[in-house]
Every structure is written in C-alpha cells, then in structure tokens.
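Ticket opened by: R.M.
Priority: normal
Category: complex prediction / small molecule

The reporter submitted a protein together with zinc ion and asked that the result be attached to this ticket for the collaborator who will pick it up next week. Submitted input follows.
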Amino acid sequence: MLPSAGEFVAAVLRLSVWLVLLTALFVPLERWFGARHAPRPRRELLHNLAYYAMSSLVPIVLLSIPAALLAVIAQHIVPTALTDMVQSLPVAGRIALVFVVGEIGFYWGHRLSHELPWLWRFHAVHHSTEHMHFLANTRTHPVDMVITRLFGLVPLYLLGLAGPSVAGSGAPALLLVTGTLWGFFIHANLRWRLGPLEWLVATPAFHHWHHSRHEHINRNYAATLPMLDRLFGTHYLPQHWPAEYGTDTPQAASLSGQLLNPLLPQQR
Ligand SMILES: [Zn+2]
Ligand SMILES: [Zn+2]
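Result attached by the on-call engineer:
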C-alpha cells in the first residue's frame, strides 16, 4: 500500500533529524581521524544532500508495492511447513536469520550490480565518489537502491521472515535501518583499523577498498558481514589504504544527467 501524505511528511521530518544527528557525529570524527584531501566542490555537497533525500524517500514509495506483492506471492508459494518452522524459532534466532539471509541477498544483488553491465550503469553512480565520507553512503541511483534492497528482501519473504502485516514487516524494517546506519560508518573518512573486529563486521577499511578506483573495486561486496566475501572468494583487506577512489565509468556533471543517463540506451 502507498504511504499516506501524513506518513510522507513524518518521513521527511525523521530524515531531517537523522541528518543533523549524523552530521554532528561524523563531521568532527572525520576531521580528527580522516585522510586529508582537497575541499569537495559545493555542487557535490548539494548532490549528496539530494541523494540523501532520495535514498531515504524513494524506497518508501517504490518498494511498498513490490514488497506487498512479494508478501502475497510468498504466502501462496512457500510451504507452510517452512514458514511454521521459521515462526517457531525464538525471537533472537529469527532476528539472526533475518540478518544473515538479508545480507546474503544483498551480497548477490551488489555483486551482480558490478558484473552485469545493465546494472553497473546504475551502480556506477555510487562509485563516482572520489573522496570517502559518510554521506557517500547515500549517493545511489534510485534504481540501484531498489534492486539491491529487493535482493535483500526477497529471500526474507520466501522464508516467511517478512509478511504483509505490520508485525511481519518489522524484520525487513530492522534490517534496512541497521544496514543503513552501518552504511554511513563504513563510508566515513575514518582511518581506523579495528583489529580482530575486522573479521566479524565490515569496517571503513573493508568498504573503502570496494571503492578503490582500479584493481579491487570487485571485492568486498558485503554490507556488514565480511565472512560472505571470504566464503564467495571476493575478500580483500590489506593493512594499507587505497591510493585512489572513484570509477573510470564517465558520470554526468549534473544531478539530472546522473539520474537520467543510465536509463538511456548506451552509446557505443
Ligand atoms: Zn559496489
Ligand atoms: Zn559504498
């Protein structure tokens, strides 16, 4: 079901508060612990704010219909024995399952966004950032955003871990909120190494290598669990940091160009 005007206004207010909190947290941390680089053009800041608004509001609108459809389809095709088994798990077990299954879905959605040219043209927008910082997290084309989120959500619906009811939608909502918050951290310009924790969770160093301009852009696809990259053979995490960030895929200078070009037929 589409969100009402009231829900939309509430979402805008929530976003504004989050932006203030995130800025208050990350701007000083990045100043103290980040790599030094030339000041970013003001236009990039404006673009990032626009992407921030889009990345938070667009999925509310664009995901609500496919998510409701998925829930109905899953109810018809998934054996009740499977959903009953999942429902009988303790709450902690279900939350852990949501987390791991959602991450595996996201991993493959992200990996295919690099490996399939028609998906890469949308995902390249995310890789266009040349200096890592927390707001780079939101620099994502709406199509890319919807596709990778659906990859995370579909297995949850198929396992009966998400449903059409308010209670049933709690699991994916939890996944989206924690995933998004962690996303700001791993994009932040923080030159921290976290020792053994780097085995357990994605860190700025882990994700910064994913944004390296050349050799290692096809590594470290996981959003939170680096174990998945170890499992699927795409892990890369040396002790040093990438020399250069960005992508060689050309990007339009204007926001409208960045949004529209991937939708146009490719020029050869
Ligand atoms: Zn990527
Ligand atoms: Zn990223």
